Structures are given as C-alpha cells and as structure tokens.
Amino acid sequence: KQNYSSIVSMEELFSQDLPVLTKLSSEERFTRIRVSVFSKNSTSSSPFSRELVLRLTDDNDPFFLHTLALTEEEYSDLKSQQGLLIDFTSFPQKLIELLTLCRAQHNKDQPKFVLQLIQAGEGGRTVFEVVETNPFKHLTHLSLRVLPGTDRTVKEYLGDCLRSYKIENNRLAEELAVSKDEFTRHMSASRAASAQQESELTRLKEEVRTRVSELSLHNEQELRTEREENHKKQEHFLERLETDKRQLQLRLQREETERGEEKRDSENRLTHMREQVLRLETCLEQSKKETQTYSTRCEELQESLNQTRLQNMSSHTRAEDQSDELRRLTTKLTALEQSLVEREQQLFRSNQSLEELTADRTRLETAVQMKQVLVGKLEQAVKTASQEVNKGNEIIQKLQQELHNTKTRLRLKCTVTMEQEKAIAEREIGMKRVTNELELMEKESSRLKEEWKTARSELEQTKKELVECQE
After folding, report:
1. What long-range pairs does 361-367 form, CB within 8 A, spacing at least 24?
2. Cα separation of 250 and 228, whole Å?
3. Rounded CA separation 142/83 (Å)
4. In terms of Cα–Cα distance, which of 21, 246, 199, 34 is closest to 115?
C-alpha cells in the first residue's frame, strides 16, 4: 500500500510526540511515539488523487517505523466497515483533533481518550486505535491497520532523517560562522572603544581631582564666614530669648496670682452652697416627718371610715325600723368623708411641697457637681496656662497682623461705603424729583379733566339753545 516512488509532493499536517499504550502479547506499557500525519499527491491512479499518510516513529529507536497510506477508495471501505460519518476531505482534520484530545487527556488521573498500538507478535498485523474508556466498556472510535517498515522503507526513512539533520547542521554551521564573524567584529570595536573610554576616563579623573581641590578651598572659606555669622546671630537670638523669657515669667506670675484669687472665690462659693444644701436637707427631713404624721392620721381616718361603712351596711339591714338613726349616721358619714377629703387635699399639698423640695435638692446637687467640675477645669486651666503662655507671643503677632489687615480692609470698606452712600443720596434726590414731577403731572391731568368736563357741559348747553332757537 505504500509506494514511495509514486510520491510527487508531501505536506506535513501534524507531528507530535504522543503517549501511546503499546500492547505486545501480554505486555502493556506507555511509550512516547511520534505520530505524524501527511497529505500527498499521488499519480498512481489519477493526476489529482490525494493520499493520507500516517507515520509512527520513535525518537529513541530509529528503526521503529510503522506507516499507513490511505487513498480515497480505501477510506470508503474503512468508512463503511467502522461506521464513520465524515468524508475523506474532513478525515485528516478530525484525526488531528482526536490526537490532540488524547494528548490533553493523558495528564488526567483517569484519561477518557487513549491511543493504543496493538502488535500481534512477529509477522502479525499492527493496529493503531483511538479508544474512549469508561467504567462499563472501552469504545474504539477509530482503528487503523499500520504496516511495519521494511528494510527499504526504514533505509529511506533513515536517509530522509539524515538529510534533514545534515541540512539543519549546515544551516546551524552557517549561522554559527556568521555569528562568530559578527562577534569578532563587535569585540574589536568594543576594545577600541574601551581604550578610548579609558583615556577619556583618565583625563576626567584629573579634571575632577583639580576641581574638587578648588571647591574644597572655596567651601572652607565660605564655611568659615558662615560660622562667624551664625555665631553672631546665635548670640543675638539668645539675648532676645532671655528678654522674652523674663517677660513671660512676669506675665505667668500675674496670671497665677489671678488664678489663685479666682480659685479662692470659687472655694468660698462652694462652701456657701454646701451650707445651703445642708439647710435644705434639714428642711427635707422635717417635711418627711410631717408627711409620716399626715399618713398616720389618714390611716386612722380610713379605719374610722371603714368602721362607719360597716355600721352603714348593718344599718341597711335594719332600715325599716331605724330610718332616723340611718339619717343621723348618713350625716355623720358625710361629715367624716368631707374631713377625709380635706385631709387628702392637705396630704396632696404636702406631697407637692415634698416634690418641690426634692427637685430643689436635685438642682442644688447638680449645681454642686457643676461647681466641682468648674473647680477642676480651673485647676486644669492653671496647669495649662503656662503652656498657653508660650503660644501667646505667636498668637499676639498673628492678631496684630490680622488687626493691620482688618484696618486696611476697614479703610477700603469705608471708602466704598461713602461712595455708595453718595450714590444712594443722589438716587434719593432723583427719586424725589421724579415723584414731585409725577404729582405735578397728576394735578395737571386732574385740572385738564375738569376743564374737559366744563367744556363738554357748555357744548351740550349750547346745543340745547341752538335747538330751541331752531324751533
């Protein structure tokens, strides 16, 4: 089936090193086999017929060679035997897709698609299969019978490999020679440039050395003058700092004296408020005692009321015989209830006064707490006053600058305000003049209306007289 003398041209479609499960008798193992797919034109049957060539080789074993040359007629038989659904023109691409899929599935723990090469011993046929594996059954998608290479085909294959290696070797040798010439040329140029740069570097080092010595002398002179000036400025600054320090100490002493006086005043006010709180607590205790007395009296009156109600209930059972006694007891009960109402009103007023005293006590306690907080704040203020004094000069300077800026803006605003007032006065004068003219025009309009009415009445009178004269 394979006739190398009929080959006109061959096009490589696929060539990769794939893992293939080889089965020889009872031995099974995965080996790396290079699977190559070619498409060639053949003149054996017709000038435009094409054949698909499948070649299996081993990069580690140059004598391992299996080939298959499949024509369109042979593919028709294969299609009918294995139930294939594609035509001969689509078969190479689908075969390449299956091979690529098997290579991708090999990296998984349980590959779904596997390539198998089954050899039936010496002289037996060899089959190349694409198998889909699953737990139930292994499905063979494609089975191709490949022929082992004969001595002639193996020699031709080895000759092709040798020629390709020689061509590649010659190409690499030419590239190596070109690279070597370029490297030699670059090295000579680099050496010349290096020598030139070394001479330039020596010259620059001399220049830098002379320049550094000049700059060192100049910098030493400038440093000496700067040190003298800084020493003078430092002495002036220390004198000014001592003066400011004395002023701040005097100001701090005055503020501490003022804070001490304020603290003593606050302590006196606090003592006075504590005395008031004690007096109010005494009044509150007296009010509580009176309230207890009123409560005792109220309970006694309640007991008497209950007894009277019990008597009233027994009186109702004897109502027919003792109506007079019932009226007397009713009158007495009314009087007792009235006294009880009065007692309850007196108790309510006592409770109100007690609540007012409680509120006054709460308010006084709150005031005492506020005064204590105020005393704490004053003490904290006395502590922080010394820190604030240090910021005082900066704040005073800022305030003076802001005052100067404010005065400048105020002068500008005064100028603008005077101009605006002048413009407003001129507008008010213009408005008064227009108002006067409007009033004069209204008066003139009223006068003209009166004259028109008079003329109209005279015209009507004249018409009447004319009619009378005509008659």
Report:
1. 361/277, 361/280, 361/281, 361/284, 364/273, 364/276, 364/277, 364/280, 365/277, 367/273
2. 34
3. 10
4. 21
Residues 148-177 have pLDDT tens digits of 888 888 888 888 888 888 998 999 999 998
Closest CA to 266 of 386, 377, 383: 377
Question: Rounded to whole angstroms, how far apart are CA atoms 18 and 102?
Answer: 8
Predicted TM-score (pTM) of this structure: 0.38
Q: Kindly tell me the number of DSSP H helices and DSSP E strands found in the chain.
A: 4, 7
Count of other CB atoms within 10 angstroms of residue 5: 5
pLDDT band at residue 372, thresholds of 50, 70 and 90? Answer: low
Residue-wise pLDDT for 102-132, tens only, equals: 988 888 888 888 998 887 655 567 899 999 8
Ramachandran region of residue 310, left (φ > 0), alpha (ψ -120 to 50) or beta?
alpha
Q: Please give the C-alpha separations between residue 373 and each of 270, 369, 447, in angstroms, as whole numbers.
A: 11, 6, 82
